[in-house]
């Protein structure tokens, strides 16, 4: 048994000075009432001085226990000072809260999100359904049980929302692991196993039969911003989010060059413009404000809700996004090749290998089909002989 030199009374009463307890443990008194512990220990032949705390926080017995612990670690060839720092860092990492990591992950995602994620669609599933319960939990403590209990009420009631929430949570956990936190990367997969699989019901956005589009297009005749936006959406097949942010600078002759930041794919997209589409753009320039062709009443751009509400008030169940379906069905029923039809809607139809070889945007082929669509929309004529993409009638529309 080790023979110690100090007593608790000496620690308390000793005046300023240095006092050895044995085996490298020293009491350093700055005054009668203040002092600290220090362990002198050899690591790979180098003398190290390791502080063990003040006498007010660490009593004599605890100082001796700590000294014994760190001497054993040094005996195994590990620097006790470096090991203590590693343990402190690990403890700190374990305490990092999920809410903090989620916000950091969101910042990392913003570069690929439309408008930098300002719409909130990426973060809202976490903000509404995960962080209220788990936000103040250290990320290292997030396990499948915690995830299951948090999302269970949502899992069958709102499966699509639950899927988004758990997918975003998986991204946050991976982000935390990349930051060096102690994270269970399998927690999401295990939580899904506990929650059980759910069958998502595909809910299609209501669309208008392509045969009815010309009548609706003709009704958009007041020259208002919302009506012009709907006309151009019909003629180009663009998504609402892409179309509403269009600027005059995007027009290059008879081509609309949409920057990738405004495309769902994140890739720049060229849209060939039929003469009717060019006329709509010229009419829209009269309303342009703040660089946007389709400004809203309260600044920025016209909202998607404004366009939807217009159609609802007009008595239509279809929604603006549904015109993409109207165009796609029209192209299919008029013999347009699948790849061309999909590219008209800016859908990616090729694998990475195919895309590395087939680099054409099929712009001129798409132009002919969009001109045919434009001719039908603006005239209501659907004579397949006269409406052939290569016909002179079509080219003049």
Automatic annotation (TrEMBL):
The keyword DNA-binding applies. InterPro entries: DNA_brk_join_enz (IPR011010), Integrase-like_cat_sf (IPR013762), Integrase_catalytic (IPR002104), Integrase_DNA-bd_sf (IPR038488), Integrase_DNA_bind_dom (IPR025166), Integrase_recombinase_N (IPR010998), Phage_int_M (IPR053876), Phage_Integrase (IPR050808). The keyword Transport does not apply. Keywords: DNA integration, DNA recombination, DNA-binding. Transmembrane segments: none annotated. Coiled coil: none annotated. Residues 203-370 form the Tyr recombinase domain. Gene3D superfamilies: 1.10.150.130, Integrase, DNA-binding domain, Intergrase catalytic core. CDD domains: INT_P4_C (cd00801). Belongs to the 'phage' integrase family. This is Tyrosine-type recombinase/integrase. It comes from Maritalea mediterranea.
């Amino acid at each position: 048994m080790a023979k110690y030199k100090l007593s608790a009374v000496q620690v308390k009463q000793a005046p300023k000075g240095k006092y050895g307890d044995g085996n490298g443990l020293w009491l350093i008194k700055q005054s009668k009432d203040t002092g600290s512990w220090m362990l002198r220990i050899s690591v790979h032949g180098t003398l190290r001085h390791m502080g063990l705390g003040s006498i007010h926080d660490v009593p004599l017995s605890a100082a001796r226990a700590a000294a014994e612990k760190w001497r054993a670690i040094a005996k195994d060839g590990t620097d006790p000072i470096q090991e203590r720092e590693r343990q402190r860092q690990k403890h700190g990492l374990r305490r990092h809260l999920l809410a903090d990591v989620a916000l950091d992950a969101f910042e990392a995602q913003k570069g690929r999100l439309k408008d930098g994620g300002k719409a909130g669609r990426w973060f809202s599933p976490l903000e509404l359904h995960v962080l209220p319960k788990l936000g103040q939990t250290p990320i290292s403590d997030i396990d499948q049980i915690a995830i299951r209990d948090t999302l269970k009420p949502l899992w069958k009631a709102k499966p699509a929302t639950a899927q988004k929430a758990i997918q975003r949570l998986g991204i946050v956990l991976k982000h935390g692991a990349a930051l060096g936190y102690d994270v269970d990367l399998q927690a999401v997969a295990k939580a899904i196993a506990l929650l059980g699989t759910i069958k998502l019901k595909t809910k299609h956005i209501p669309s208008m039969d392509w045969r009815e589009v010309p009548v609706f297009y003709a009704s958009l005749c007041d020259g208002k911003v919302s009506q012009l936006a709907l006309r151009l959406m019909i003629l180009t097949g663009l998504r609402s989010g892409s179309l509403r942010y269009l600027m005059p600078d995007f027009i290059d002759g008879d081509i609309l060059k949409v920057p990738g930041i405004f495309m769902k794919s994140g890739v720049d997209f060229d849209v060939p413009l039929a003469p009717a589409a060019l006329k709509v753009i010229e009419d829209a320039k009269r309303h342009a404000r703040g660089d946007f062709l389709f400004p809203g009443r309260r600044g920025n751009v016209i909202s998607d809700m404004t366009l939807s509400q217009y159609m609802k008030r007009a008595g239509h169940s279809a929604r603006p996004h549904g015109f993409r379906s109207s165009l796609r069905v029209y192209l299919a029923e008029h013999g347009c090749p699948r790849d061309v039809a999909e590219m008209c809607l800016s859908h990616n139809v090729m694998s990475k290998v195919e895309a590395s070889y087939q680099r054409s945007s099929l712009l001129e082929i798409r132009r002919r089909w969009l001109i045919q669509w434009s001719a039908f929309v603006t005239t209501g004529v659907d004579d397949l002989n006269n409406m052939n993409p290569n016909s002179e009638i079509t080219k003049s529309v």
